[in-house]
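Can't paste images in this forum, so I'm doing it all in text. The chain is below; anyone willing to post the predicted structure tokens underneath?
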Amino acid sequence: MSEHRWLLILVVIVVAANIFVGSYLWWSQKTELPVAHIARSVAENTPGEEDLPVSLRLTRVNSERVLFPTITRGGNVRFWDAGNATFAESKPDGGQYQTLATLLHTAVRDVVWSPDGFTIAALVDSAMLHGWQLFDLRTESFRSLPANVLAVAFSPKGDEVVYLENDGARGRIVVTLADGTGAKEILATRMNSAELSWPTPERIALIATDSDGLRTLYLLGLDGRLVQVIQGRSQLHAVWSSDGSRVLLSWFEDGSLHTSIITLATAREDAPPITTLASKCAWSTVTAFVCGMPKTPLSSEGYGNTVVPDVLAVTRMTNDTPWVTTTYATTPLSVRETLTHGGWGVVRNAYDGLLWSFIIPQ
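Text version of the structure:
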């Protein structure tokens, strides 16, 4: 009787082990499916974790909380390391952390990087420096911009700077060399609030905010000619493709999020199938961009700085339809901003304040 009992126990153990091994192998095979097999278009379905069982692999770029990241032309990630008070650089896989410059006892409020990553415009506050400064990381030199500068941007080549200044009585938009010399006024304006970018060598883009909080996008030629692109939108954001041929826009109207892609050469306007702010997106090519997108659509109050779980979404132009979006699960992730370089991207995660890199699915 005792032998039968032990035999029965042995049989149960063997059966249970087979079930466990079989379940493990099935799960392993399931998680190793090609990403394309589990991707879904947001035009057909709002993503949820149950719809996207496989996550893109995220690689930690840094181990400290960082601000104002960029990707240089050489593919390295540069950022302000607030914990160590340094401008630093790292490989996208997190290797070869390097300190570029240290600013002790200095509060850095904002940073704009030149395309090559060697010159930066930084809004700082310290006992010795205040306001916007141009730093050259190669020579460790700096030059102060005028005291009333409100916004700064670098040219596509990084050899020039444009800034908006306003002393309360008058404002102007000025172009200088990257070292701050050779200032030339290209537009006198009453604007006292604007965001600047420089998408093409011939055109500067600016978003001006009026007294009602509505925002308008303009293009400004170096000859001073100002052209309005889109007027009077609430919470308008714009992200330009690397060649400046397209712009991704988002804004709110009657509490609903709207998105649009404008191709400047043809004035064509498309509505991409995404539900996220343009500020959380980055163009990877002139026909594709990557976004952090909420797993469920939010109200206008829910976007802003709210930390919500996101998925990564890749939107591409196709032959069959103007734009198609594919979503991929990444857990846990709440995107503050997105950067891209070639076939990979970087996101700043609001959950931990770190930078994470990933390969952009093809």
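The two ends are 63 Å apart (CA to CA). Residues 2-31 form the longest helix (30 residues).
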